[in-house]
Design goal:
78 residues, single chain, mainly alpha
Amino acid sequence: MISFKKMRFPKEVILQNVYWYNRYSLSYRDLEEMMKERGVDVDHSTINDWVVKYNPLLEIEFQKSNRSKWNSNKNQYR
């Protein structure tokens, strides 16, 4: 489980920025501008910190969930 304790911004804002950064070809400054349009004042360097911190953790969680789904599907066909 990934912890978001002691973070200034809500979990949803952090995850949305990390997702957008990975999914689309957006710069940290683009994301900063998009957040300002949505009323969230966050600096591009903060978004960079989130990506550096949470990307590896999210990758591990994603692999865990995919592995368990793959194993359960594999067992269905036996």
